[in-house]
Structures are given as structure tokens and as C-alpha cells.
Amino acid sequence: MTAQAKPQRLFNFSAGPAMLPLEVLEASAQALVNYQGKGVGIAEVSHRGKEFDAVIDEAIQRCKSLLGVGDTHDVLFLQGGATQLFTTIPMNFATGTVDYLVSGEWSQKAAKAAQASGAKVNIVANSESTNFDQSAAPSTWKLTPDAGYLHVCSNETVHGHRLPVWPSHPNLVVDASSEFMARPHPVKDCALVYAGAQKNLGPAGVVVAIVRKDWYPRIGKSVPALFNFQKQAEAKSMVNTPPTFGIYILLETFRWLDRQGGLSAIEKRNEEKAGLIYQTIDASQGFYKATVAVPEQRSRMNITFRLPSEELTDAFIKEADKQGMVALKGYRTVGGIRASIYNAMPVEGCQMLAAHMRDFAARSR
Ligand SMILES: Cc1ncc(COP(=O)(O)O)c(C=O)c1O
Question: Is 116 exposed, middle or buried (0-12, 13-18, 19+ CB in 10 A)?
Fold first, then answer.
């Protein structure tokens, strides 16, 4: 038998759906065709059968153990993406006034969805007037005493900044979509943490939600079973047929994360990767301008920066593309460059991007 050549992989800087580890893709591809040598693929078996039951049990277990959460919380694998999640949160859990930090595109969308649902929403701070170039200092937030919850987005995928430390609040809800499992998170201290899978975990179509069980009595009787967090938890995310293959890929990612040494080890690598690019920006004598000035707030996942002109930006992207570095164009409303370097992006991809940045700046000044 001839050894199979490794596929040529691009360095894919897409913000999501995004790059996944090759080992995860290969193991998932194998399971899709022939699961554990059973002559049937994992996407072809019943979600109520023993094969898939073992998959979801292991996925829940590994997810909890990677995050250090115990019996106080349930792990759900739902459909509808992070947008459905932030739409159904107020429906389930809003009591009295609910607080929202608006620090970018996604937290703003979540706050608007809560307002549209009829919840009484208080915006604790809003950095839109400075184009979401940073998140307001926690000491300036206008928090409601006894708010039903505080919702934040810990990493703003579009604007490229993060909350260096998740706030401490008795009922904290975090949209962690674009940094989930890229560093250790204090999930056990949160009421609800959610993340669309298509950045750091797997394919679009699955959203992970980790819910504190003591929140279930808040859920009104009128919430439909499909959107009811308690009913979904009782049914192990199977009120209806779950996205079985997507969940399988998540399980492979959790196994991969364990093999990498867990979230502290992955954070160390992510800091190194992001450092390579931010150092290049900061050493470019103003040729590249980071859109987020405060170093601590700069996202380690979505690195956003500008070049002196649109022509140079286009040329930069085209040249990168030719070298096998793709999807560097900034979000449509923001422009510039966005390099998304989730867990699966190898250090070599960041080294190559930094080298291209240095070379391009030297030639274009
Ligand atoms: C931080 C954040 N929240 C929410 C969403 C929405 O996710 P979805 O498209 O899965 O609904 C995204 C998508 O990019 C995101 O980056």
C-alpha cells in the first residue's frame, strides 16, 4: 500500500466558518464513512441509538472537564447558531431589567434581539460613538442593581477586541463564540455561556450552551420546548433530531484540545501567535494601524488592522492569497484586514503572515 500524501492546506484566516485542525477533519471524515469499522457512518445512525448516545455523553463530559465545570451546569448542543441563542435567552431568563454591554457588532445585535423580545433592557455602556474601537472600562458601566442578568460578548469578532477579564456578576451571560476554548474561562462562575461552533470548535449548525441549573425556575410555561433550555437539558439536547455529525466533529475537537494539553496550553500558544502579528504592527512605524489601541483589549483571535489606503489593502490581500494565506479581508462594514487565528491556525501561519507584513511594508512605504 502506498502512503497517502498529506493534503496541501492553506492558511485560512477566515473569521468563521474557519480552519479546523487537520487531525479533527481526518478523524471526522473517517467516522463519516465508516464509524469504528461498523460499516456505517456516524451521520447515518439514529440519534437515539447507542453509537450516538456514547458520542454525546463523551462530548458533554469532555466539554465540562476542559472548562472545569461540574454538576451545577448543563452542557447543551443546539441548532440555530449563536443568533438563535441570544434571541432565546431573554425569552427564557429575563426577569425585571436585564443589562447589556454593547461593545461591538455582536453584543449590539444581542441587545437589539432582547429589546425586540419585549425585555426591559438597560445598556450599561456603548462604545459605538468611537466605532467600537475598545470596550468601555468596567468602572464606567451603569449597572442595574439586581438586574436579571448582565450580557457581554467576551470577544468581538468584527471589531477585534476582547474583555481581558470576564466581569464578575451573580448572573453573567457571555457570548464567547469567537474565543471559546482559546483560553481558560470562568464558566463555573457564569449563569450561561454560549458559542457558535464555527470558529473554534467545528462546523456551523451547532451552538454550545452551558447553563447553570438554578436558572431553570425562571423559565415561563409559554416557552416552546424547542427553545426551552430546561426541556433541552432534560432531553440531552434531543427535543428533536440534533445536528449529529456536527456534534461528532466537536467531540473530535475536544479530544484534540485534550491532546494539546488543555486550555492553558492552548492559551500560551495563542498568545505567542497573536504576539507575532501585533509586534509586527507595532514595529511598522505606523504603516499598519491596529484598530484596537489598548494592548490588553486586543483580541488574540481576530486581529484587525488597516493599511494606509484601500489600494494597498487590496494589493496586500492579493499577494497574501498567492502565498496560500486566504480570507484576510476585513468585515464588510469595517474594511481593512482581519486575520482570524483560532486554535487550529498553526504558529507557522502567523509567522508567514508577519513575514508578508514586513516585506510588504518595506516595499510600499
Ligand atoms: C461573537 C459572535 N456572536 C454571534 C455570532 C452569530 O453567530 P451565528 O451566525 O452562528 O448565529 C457571531 C458570528 O460570527 C459572532 O462572531
Answer: exposed
What nine digits make up the cell of 238? 434531543
* Structure confidence at residue 255 (pLDDT): 98
297/135 Cα distance (integer angstroms): 8
Q: What is the per-residue pLDDT across 260-314, written as a single tens digit (0 to 9) for each?
A: 999 999 999 999 999 999 999 999 999 999 999 899 999 999 999 999 999 999 9
User: Does ligand 1 come within 6 angstroms of the Cβ of 196?
Assistant: yes
Q: 192 alpha carbon to ligand 1 midpoint, in Å?
A: 16
Domain residue ranges of the chain, discontinuous segments joined by +: 25-260, 262-364
Q: What would be the CATH architecture of the domain defined by 25-260?
A: 3-Layer(aba) Sandwich (3.40)
Question: What is the distance in A from the centroid of ligand 1 to the CA of 36?
Answer: 33
User: What's the topology of domain 262-364?
Assistant: Aspartate Aminotransferase, domain 1 (3.90.1150)
The stretches in the chain having pLDDT less than 50 are: 1-2
